[in-house]
């Protein structure tokens, strides 16, 4: 206990966000209109704020509390008092036989995620060989995401080469309930209107799970078994595409996962089945024939009837069902300072999908060349192309027909260090999109980044200015943005306009740090941004984020 007080590290973070333009949901509405339609206005103020406290003693004892209110949610009034969302955890590591013990809110991931994975994953990327699930087991949950976590208790116990994990979760989730059933789970965590509040914490969800793994020198085998219980019946609104989606009050799923390493080969995979005998499997084989060439082949099959709520394995679709695919990736280092990354992914959907009224096929291709002639200079060129079948409607047809939709992009990035303190980056990207026999549409983006760390001041900042011209949504361009601590954003830019942001990090002392981000998007030939209660009059959208971090030691 004395060591915990003396050597424990504390961290307190408070964050405030504000959109500078007034959105439709915050405008004055007459009382008579609100009586007629109470969802015509947000019930709270336009500020987002959160508070986080974290404690760490070495890596053995971790504890924390999180509280959050989204913009538009009420902080004090008739509908809510205090924060809208609270979360907390205590995690102990390496205590005797206990490898992990977590109480409160936690995440769980096993195998390749076919049965259980509540951690964030990016899917296909230019890191073409990184297909294996990286994080396994139970971990504390300190995010402000209000949907993808468990609340209860879990532990992992070690017996030599065997690890046994068990967990139990019991918490409320949001659902659009009607009587004893609900059609969908609300996952955005927003409770800004009366309608949102009517869905808050309306469904009780209990999950119990276990995972047993055996590790040897070159082989690992694991077994996962989970059971989900809902107090109300999940009954999705019937459409042909969701005919096989999970419905009911309970679901059981189990799987076997495996990893084998032998010489220059690496094999991993997972095979699962539900209580309705719906199968799914994912398997990958990696091969390193030389120090300059690496290959990976991945096969997956997710039956149309396989639909597990907490599955999050590799795939083209947003959920692991109704998909077959074959992925081939390679990374080559042909010369010094060069790296070539390529993947090709072919996929087939045996049943209908949302927006595609028949079984369909498609493929995805990426080629990226990285070149670093000097330590201070790096550049890469990336080509991406995807073809999928989708419903098409036009002026000459009333009934949709199925045709190919093509989308491609070409990006060039140049990064160079002017000095140890100054870094610049240039980005140029063009996009292409075509539906059926329609004329193709195009988009373009130009961006300039500047990062600088002051010599005499504890100050660093990032600045970006970008211009985009992508009138159609199909030509949207995703650009990762640096952000304040513990936040990230990847906005989709489309239309015609420009965007800038300034990111500042200033250390106010040894223990106190300030993070600030200001960003603004300006559109050309646009008088309204957004829709519904998020609508903004005008052509500009400005956001400000501020975060204050205080690290302290009670012993000092």
Structure characterization notes:
This protein has 556 residues and is mainly beta. It contains three helices and 30 strands. The strands form three sheets. The chain has a 26-stranded mixed β-sheet that branches.
Mean pLDDT: 94
Distance between the termini: 16 Å
Number of DSSP helical runs = 3
Name the overall outline.
Answer: globular
Give helix % range.
Answer: under 10%
Bin the strand percentage. over 45%
Q: Can you count the beta strands?
A: 30
Main sheet overview: 26 strands, mixed
Radius of gyration: 25 Å
The unreliable regions are none
Q: How would you classify the helix and strand content by structural class?
A: mainly beta
Put the structure in a nutshell:
The chain is mostly beta strands and 556 residues long. It has helices at 2-7, 31-36, 194-197, and strands spanning 9-19, 47-57, 61-69, 85-95, 98-109, 137-140, 150-159, 162-178, 181-186, 203-215, 219-234, 248-262, 265-274, 279-290, 293-302, 323-332, 338-349, 360-374, 377-394, 397-417, 422-435, 441-453, 459-470, 477-478, 492-493, 495-507, 512-523, 528-529, 536-537, 540-552.
Features:
single chain, 556 residues, mainly beta, 26-stranded mixed β-sheet, 30 strands, 3% helix, globular
